[in-house]
Structure formats: structure tokens, C-alpha cells
Amino acid sequence: MAYFIPAFFLFVFVYAIIKKVKPYDAFTDGAKNAVPFAVSIFPYLVSIFVLTELFEISGLSNLFNKIFAPITGFFGIPQELNKLVLIKPFSGSGALGTLSEIFNEYGADSYLARAACVIYGSSETVFYVASVYFAGAKTKKLVTPIIISLVASFFSCVFACFICKVM
Asked: How far is CA 119 from CA 25, 33, 89, 110, in A?
């Protein structure tokens, strides 16, 4: 496994030579073309990070936890995991911090910790990914894909809790 990355680079280099492409020039051209893209998505990324921190610091995450507890409980998600379910679509690092809190409070081998790990691994930071992809694609039709992504993310959490309860 330690030789995978050097072998991959060697493969790409040899493949480029076979295809008569100058690898260094192709790399620098790609990097040059990526700069405007990175600049164009930067405001979206900053807004997502700022809003995520405000959501956590303001206490809104705790309020949403209390509001959505009956709904998530109905679907089989324990109340202790609500904060993770709510923060994951917004922030991967916030979700990782919440996962760490769950480990510390309930133990790494508990049902809650196992379910939290599966939730963390099986869901995506929907708003971060949407901001990157939609900014890059320059599309404004965000509502339907985000709703579909959030519903899919929620049901992945439901399924994660069910699987961890069964196993």
C-alpha cells in the first residue's frame, strides 16, 4: 500500500508519454484553469462555514434538536443523535466534533456510538457539496436537489439506526 501513490504517478506519467501529452504542461494548464473556478466558489464556501458556526454558537442547533426530537424518534433515531443528524448536512467538522462528544459520553462500543459512526460515514455535508457543485455549474435551481439530498440523508440516518439496532 505504501507504493500505491508513487506507482499511480508513474502510471499517469507513462500513460501521458504514450498518449504524447506533456505531463507538466497539462498539469500547469489544469491548475491555471482551476484558479478562476476556486475564486468563483469561494464566497459560497465562506457563507456555508460562517452560517454553520452561527447555527452552532447561537444555540439554534439545540432548539432544532428539541423541535425535531418527536419526528426523529418516530423514525427510530435516538434523541441523543439528533444533533449529529442536524449538523451533518451543514458541517463535516461540526459533525466530527459531535461524534467525538457521543464517544466520550456513551462510550465507543455503545449502540449510540455505532449508529453515530454509520450516520457520519453514510451521509454527506449536503449544503457544502451543493454550494461547490452548483457554484461550479453556475445553476440557480437549488431547491429540488437540496430537498432530495436532505430527504435521502435523513433516511440514511434512519436506516443506519435500524441496521445498528439489528446487528
From this structure: 42, 36, 11, 14
